[in-house]
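Quick one: structure for this chain?
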Amino acid sequence: MCKGLAALPATCLKSAKDMKHRLGFLLQKSDSCDYSSSQGKKEKMPSGQRVSQEEVRKWADSLENLIHHDRGLAAFHAFLKSEYSEENIEFWVSCEDYKKTKSPAKLSPKARKIYDEFISVQATKEVNLDSCTREKTSHNVLEPTLSCFDEAQRKIFTLMEKDSYRRFLKSPYYLDLVSPPGAGCGPENCKRSHIHSLDCNSNIISRCA
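Got it. Here's what it folds into:
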């Protein structure tokens, strides 16, 4: 057998060595990819954990409880998006972020951005405000303070509280979360076609920040 290898041309022996080297490299790369994939799955698992039933039930007590919880806010935003009215909660979140502004120099540009996006008649996501509140808010933005959007924010909160919030509590976006884990497919559960999984790191929060 050794004589047979010795009789082979040098180019053939070199090609065989190169092929062996490449195979070894590919095997190592495959193992590395499998490990990275398994690590990625492990890291994503915590985000799939469901919020406690006790916490979910508190969301039905008030809209304030709902939208001050990350998961609740994400669920409500998803519901409003399904109704093509997500601008209301996005405006509310933007106002909350605005009131946390510490630098006076940032008030004016942030106020203008909120106004252009939600208040202006030509706003891309215009919210439903009465003419009086809209005019007052427009005036406030000229010399912005931390409270210049307070009245408009209250109006939109009340609008959501009386309208979309009540529908949300009767929708699968809430009912699928409040159902006890492992519940059977009873008459009520069978009406819910799917469960909406929610991520704590909702895009709405990062986008409006």
